[in-house]
From TrEMBL, chain A:
SUPFAM superfamilies: Winged helix' DNA-binding domain
Record's keyword annotation contains Cell division: yes
Keywords: Cell cycle, Cell division, Chromosome partition, Cytoplasm
InterPro entries, alphabetized: ScpB_csome_segregation (IPR005234), WH-like_DNA-bd_sf (IPR036388), WH_DNA-bd_sf (IPR036390)
The protein's name in its UniProt record: Segregation and condensation protein B
GO biological process: cell division; chromosome separation
The keyword Cell division belongs to this UniProt entry's keyword annotation: yes
Signal sequence residues: none
Protein species of origin: uncultured Rubrobacteraceae bacterium
Amino acid sequence: MSVRRDNLEQGTPDAAALIEAVLLVSPRPVTLPALLSATALPESEARAALEALGARYSSESSGIVLREVAGGYQLATNPSCEAAVERFREEARPAPLSGAAHEVLSCVLYLGPLTRAGVNAARGVNSDAVVRNLLDRNLLIEAGRDQTKPGAPALLDVTEDFLLAAGARSRDDFPALAEIVDEAEISRVRERVSGAAERPVEAPHGGDG
Amino acid sequence: MNTEKGEPKGRTLASFTIELDVYSGPYEGLLALILKDELEIFEVPLRELVSLYRNANPPAPPGEAPGALERDTDFVDSATSLILLKGRALAPYSAEAEGEDAEEGPSPEDLEERLVTYLKIKRGAEALRERISGNAAYYPSVHALHPRPGRLRISPNRLATAARRAFLRTAEPGVGHLGTVTVTVGELVALIRSALVRGPVSFEDLVRDMDRLRSAVAFAAALSLAAQGRLTLTQPEPFGPLTLEPPK
């Protein structure tokens, strides 16, 4: 710590100070290549400095934390200080997303990039309004077109803001669906469907249905 | 809901407001929009709606919430109608299945696959909800500096790309495949009027020897004459035979 202060007093900031300064002036996560380009540091030194900053800005001891999100590094407030920050900023947190919105995000994250029709088919209901809302919130983006479908519909994908909201470094940071869903639960669904298919179905209104 | 004693005291259904992705405002407004087909019933999360109602109107001991029973009854009444509507909308073949060419539903294997996929999506959504809510309390640095005039470095290539995008005109679609229009609505109006002198005429007979363009213009001419009240169009069923009759 004293070496760092000495360096700063002598006008030769160390690697951690340089990175700290760049992160402070960026509201978006800064990628490692961008940090290297701005600070002119070698990669090994930058990585060591980021580790040191991570320890300095730990959630146990600091009101600011260093996050590794959305493919970069970002300085953010410690969640334990949220009440004070929200009082100071005099603003409420945006309304939480609905269950339908989480389902659409889950569809696009795990099955995507996906067209709107693909989302509707996966959920079994029309989800256009929910998709619109997520596009407005910049959690989804139209990233290209599906040239194999008639009319080349837009393909939806998750955004950097989505990764930020979920605190994820990248798409690979999410657990695989197989880990989330209990195999026993899937077996129960399969059994229920095959059981229903084996049972004779009563025709509605006495018709041949 | 009006009763013999007049408007019940306490909160009524009219004061129940909701905040959904697809709609925000009074509950009764939502019902009106659905009934007017201005909002798809597919898009209304009914479970969330019921939760909102329960949160807004928690159960109270008898006597402490006058009018609560009437209000709850009204809500249950409207909510069951919504469930019925949504059920019908989600199973569009149920009513038609009684008829002849009813489409077959998905096979048990397809249904099983769809349900399993949906189950996975649902569990993924639950995990996402937890993750997003756990990360909602981070506030990033807001030290976004304004660029200083004259100090901003922009590469010429980037500027050229931006200019290209700004001044780009979308290519107009070609119309070469449409062919030349060689007939006017006026000509076919005259043709229809002369045919009608002999009495009602079938549209099919009228356009029998015409090409696609003339048939389309003849249809436009017939619509135009019908709109002016100079003929009556009769079609017993959708896509059925169309008959042109002189005005009565």
